[in-house]
Task: inverse folding
């Protein structure tokens, strides 16, 4: 359950949390500093945003963002230089930098060793690398996660827009989470 | 809490068999929602274990940012009470805590700090909540900073702490703990193979 594992297809799941992070975003680490990217939007380290950030593509934040970050169906990476003082909603969130606010993800949240997170985490799957700074609450109860995400979507959705978690959409079942944990795959396995 | 006496790395037990811990987490079923307060740092193995059940986990990470030293200070009682409450995560949901993991943190707190901290924990708990703790009992010394315990697949505890200077252990007795835990009382106690005493406290 807690050991490095192989995925069902025989590939190595990896020993650390980088395997759980969205791969495309991870590949953009060097591009982040330049503020330019091919497939992943980047808020560069010299950019400061006070307000709400919305979008439908993967985003990497290396700058300073205050307000709300909402990427309903996309992946967000907060890079090592990134400072986010905001409530964040995304499909998955990977934190290498600093966040102050609540993090909501419909799939998973991964907090790496360089991260400093103050706030609450709500996601069906959560991984916190040993040594990461985190103080707050972690909500993993599937029912509570869905309820919180529903509320968050309602709060964040603009009039006429659909919420993220629509009835009938595939959901990550608790049993799948347990199966992944038991098999040693998934973000909760193999911190070291 | 005590004075450092040496810098030599000490040998830590590879695995700690803690039956009361195993019993507690074994009682976390998948049907009932539980609120768990972890006074230590977040770890993925612990989250993975608690993720099997319907848990909300509150992470205090007391050893971070000098929390232990601040609690051990000689500040006025009312300030310490406020400090202890502030060191715990914000309690927004209003749901009462069912289970707290103290790990070995109490060894690093002075008696008055133990009382203050456990009172703050009790203020968040439901009647009957349980708290688990590991107290250095047989040995006269202990590592200079708290351990980083993570559960293994077979529910033993692995201490991943970096070796530190050793210091004198307070060796709190069951009698002492029984009279310094506020509304908590000792429910179970068991001497472990490494000389630690494992406790489960119950909030009355």
Result:
């Amino acid at each position: 359950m807690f050991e490095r594992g192989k995925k069902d297809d025989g590939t190595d799941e990896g020993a650390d949390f980088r395997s759980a992070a969205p791969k495309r975003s991870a590949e953009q680490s060097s591009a982040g500093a330049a503020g330019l990217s091919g497939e992943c939007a980047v808020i560069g380290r010299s950019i400061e945003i006070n307000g709400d950030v919305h979008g439908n593509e993967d985003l990497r934040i290396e700058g300073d963002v205050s307000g709300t970050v909402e990427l309903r169906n996309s992946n967000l990476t907060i890079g090592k230089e990134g400072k986010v003082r905001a409530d964040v909603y995304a499909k998955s969130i990977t934190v290498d930098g600093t966040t102050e606010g609540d993090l909501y993800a419909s799939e998973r949240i991964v907090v790496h060793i360089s991260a400093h997170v103050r706030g609450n985490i709500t996601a069906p799957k959560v991984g916190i690398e040993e040594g990461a700074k985190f103080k707050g609450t972690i909500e993993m109860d599937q029912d509570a996660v869905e309820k919180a995400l529903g509320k968050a979507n309602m709060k964040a959705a603009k009039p006429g827009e659909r919420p993220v978690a629509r009835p009938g959409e595939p959901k990550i079942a608790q049993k799948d989470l347990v199966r992944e944990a038991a098999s040693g795959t998934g973000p909760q396995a193999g911190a070291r | 809490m005590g004075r450092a006496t040496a810098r030599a790395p000490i040998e830590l037990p590879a695995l700690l068999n803690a039956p009361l811990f195993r019993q507690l987490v074994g009682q976390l079923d998948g049907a009932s929602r539980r609120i768990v307060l972890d006074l230590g740092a977040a770890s993925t193995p612990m989250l993975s274990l608690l993720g099997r059940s319907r848990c909300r986990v509150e992470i205090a990470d007391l050893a971070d940012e000098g929390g232990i030293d601040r609690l051990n200070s000689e500040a006025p009682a009312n300030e310490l009470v406020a400090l202890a409450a502030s060191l715990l995560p914000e309690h927004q949901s209003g749901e009462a805590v069912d289970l707290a993991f103290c790990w070995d943190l109490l060894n690093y707190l002075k008696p008055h700090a133990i009382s203050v901290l456990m009172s703050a924990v009790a203020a968040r708990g439901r009647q009957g909540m349980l708290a688990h703790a590991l107290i250095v009992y047989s040995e006269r010394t202990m590592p200079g900073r708290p351990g980083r315990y993570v559960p293994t697949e077979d529910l033993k505890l692995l201490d991943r702490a970096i070796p530190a200077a050793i210091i004198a252990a307070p060796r709190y007795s069951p009698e002492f703990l029984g009279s310094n835990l506020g509304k908590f009382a000792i429910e179970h106690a068991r001497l472990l193979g490494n000389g630690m005493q494992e406790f489960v406290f119950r909030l009355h």
Observations:
- Chain A is about 20% helix and 35% strand.
- The CA atoms of residues 125 and 188 of chain A lie 7 Å apart.
- Residues 1-37, 158-192 of chain A have pLDDT under 50 and may be disordered.
- The helical segments of chain A are 23-26, 29-34, 142-156, 174-183.
